[in-house]
Amino acid sequence: MPGKNIRPLGGKPLIVWSIEHALSVSRIDRVIVSTDSEDIAKVAELHGAVVPFMRPAELAGDLSPEWFAWRHALNYLKISEGALPEAMVSIPATAPLRNPIDIDNCLDEYEKGEVDVVITVTEAHRSPYFNMVKTNSDGTVGLVIPPTSTISRRQDSPTVYDMATVAYVVRPEFVFTSESIFQGRVRAVQVPLQRAIDIDTLHDFQIAEYLLSHANQY
């Protein structure tokens, strides 16, 4: 979806939802938007965020790892200010239906200590032990994780979760010493499914519009 981050949703550009969520969390000192788009930068600054640098094009493609964008932003702060923040909170523009309390809950979990990253998750509706399959080398399919005993109902399989993009809280030093989230100590905060939609396609956008218009029913 070209221009997705500034496409109007519920009367405001998509990215503005995330900026407003961040600004409403008292423990967040400032809201920085990392982008390679002048149009996005203008919208972000108009709504209270700061854009002290432009993201390099090689870190802004559809296939560019978000991890490298985090590292680029933190490196800018380290060079320009001589220090890293106590924590970095990533609040993706593509999850506009989060509630600021979800961010606060992630910060609460991070402040317990002994953690590198806090992620958000939702209850999974499919299980690799029961109804998620992979293709075998002979062309047949089988369960992603075959259970050691027969499982006749999904409810009887081990509890699993889907990762969400509602918020991440990251120890800045960890971003420089590792290459991915699960190389470190990770904890999770569960969020309701209706607040965890991640907008990648027009279909996702339409679902978000519907959920937003019926928010009082959840």
Describe the structure.
Helix content is 29%, strand content 16%. With 218 residues, the protein is α+β, with helices and mostly antiparallel strands. It has a single domain, classed as Spore Coat Polysaccharide Biosynthesis Protein SpsA, Chain A, CATH 3.90.550.10. Strand 1 (8-9) and strand 2 form a beta hairpin. The mean pLDDT is 93.
Give the topology:
Blueprint: E1 8-9, E2 12-13, H1 14-23, H2 38-46, H3 66-81, E3 88-90, H4 100-110, E4 117-123, E5 133-135, E6 141-143, E7 161-170, H5 172-177, E8 186-190, H6 202-213
Parallel strand pairs: 4-8
Antiparallel strand pairs: 1-2, 3-7, 4-7, 5-6
Structure characteristics:
single chain, four-stranded mixed sheet, 218 residues, 8 strands, two-stranded antiparallel sheet, alpha+beta, 6 helices, Spore Coat Polysaccharide Biosynthesis Protein SpsA, Chain A
Biggest pleated sheet: 4 strands, mixed
CATH topology: Spore Coat Polysaccharide Biosynthesis Protein SpsA, Chain A
Figure out the total of helices: 6
Please give the share of residues in helix.
Answer: 25-40%
Mean pLDDT: 93
Q: Give the total of beta strands.
A: 8
Strand order of the largest sheet: 3-7-4-8
Rg estimate, integer Å? 19 Å
CATH superfamily: Spore Coat Polysaccharide Biosynthesis Protein SpsA, Chain A
Describe the structure concisely.
The chain is an alpha+beta fold.
